[in-house]
TrEMBL record:
This is Uncharacterized protein. The chain crosses the membrane at residues 28-44, 56-77, 83-102. It comes from Desulfomicrobium apsheronum. The lineage of its organism: Bacteria, Pseudomonadati, Thermodesulfobacteriota, Desulfovibrionia, Desulfovibrionales. Keywords: Membrane, Transmembrane, Transmembrane helix.
């Protein structure tokens, strides 16, 4: 059950990232924006896992981080502009901060 909750959390977090990518094309993207998204992904993952009766552990945080960083690396490789680098750095910081503060 915990694996299914972790997969659900990862899918929701990737959906958040895709929605954020779409919205960022019409707005401003910055380091702080990336940090907020990263923290938000961990926050949502925690709520999903707790809803299922489990607790957010470092394994779930690690899987959310790995999938988010993989998407970020793809974006850097494909669209390597300065704002993408700052945004993705912010996502990593937000993920780590969320993992530390919410576990």
């Amino acid at each position: 059950m915990e694996i299914l909750l972790a997969i659900a959390a990862i899918l929701v977090c990737q959906g958040m990232q895709a929605l954020d990518d779409f919205l960022s094309r019409v707005g401003v993207v910055s380091l702080a924006h990336g940090m907020l998204l990263g923290f938000g992904q961990i926050f949502v993952a925690k709520r999903i896992v707790e809803w299922g009766g489990s607790s957010l552990g470092w394994m779930v945080v690690a899987f959310v981080c790995i999938t988010s960083v993989a998407v970020s690396l793809y974006k850097i490789h494909r669209f390597g502009t300065r704002w993408v680098f700052a945004f993705n750095f912010g996502v990593v910081i937000g993920l780590l901060y969320g993992g530390i503060s919410l576990t």
